[in-house]
Automatic annotation (TrEMBL):
PANTHER family: PHOSPHOGLYCERATE KINASE, PHOSPHOGLYCERATE KINASE 1, CHLOROPLASTIC-RELATED
Keywords from the named record: ATP-binding, Kinase, Magnesium, Nucleotide-binding, Transferase
GO molecular function terms noted in the UniProt entry: ATP binding; phosphoglycerate kinase activity
Name of this chain's protein: Phosphoglycerate kinase
Subunit structure: Monomer.
Length: 171
């Protein structure tokens, strides 16, 4: 994965569906810590990481299910400042991806804010795939779901590979 990732835009789908208390504080960061080896490996090898996940099952854009509370913990564990964007597709996302430095991480907003995610909408999957050069699925908890960011994505971007967590839990 190292040579394939160097200087590439790598879309990583992880499962960071962590519990939050009423103050939006993470109460168990196990899933975040589990995703770190893959992300760290990619940033250490000069990849531009586009990070995607979900939080709960929102019905459209729901502020309490924003991924903003995850940024401080991700930044701390990775040892770099993670940038979060308030969407997962569109011009703002494309601009931030284009300006992402090697070894940088851009966290996309909750992919389930779009109903197209769980419907595995091909156009939505294509928009996500257009952001990257390489796809890494490290979302064990959602790998069995035919969603746009897990199954649909792979129809539009090759290569598609398993991250370290997914490999560890499957093989």
């Amino acid at each position: 994965m190292a040579s394939a990732a160097a200087r590439k835009k790598v879309f990583v789908r992880a499962d960071l569906n962590v519990p939050l208390d009423d103050n939006q504080t993470i109460t168990d960061d196990t899933r975040i810590r589990a995703a770190i080896p893959t992300i760290k490996y990619l940033i250490d090898n000069g990849a531009k990481v586009i990070f995607s996940t979900h939080l709960r099952r929102p019905k459209g854009v729901t502020p309490k299910f924003s991924l903003a509370p995850l940024v401080p913990r991700l930044s701390e564990l990775l040892g770099i400042q993670v940038t979060k964007v308030d969407d997962c597709i569109g011009p703002e996302v494309e601009s931030l991806v284009a300006s992402l430095p090697e070894g940088g991480v851009l966290l996309l907003e909750n992919v389930r804010f779009y109903k197209e995610e769980e419907k595995n909408d091909p156009e939505f999957a294509k928009k996500l795939a257009s952001l990257a050069d390489l796809y890494v699925n490290d979302a064990f908890g959602t790998a069995h779901r035919a969603h746009a960011s897990t199954e649909g994505f792979t129809k539009f971007l090759k290569p598609s590979v398993a991250g370290f967590l997914l490999q560890k839990l499957i093989f």
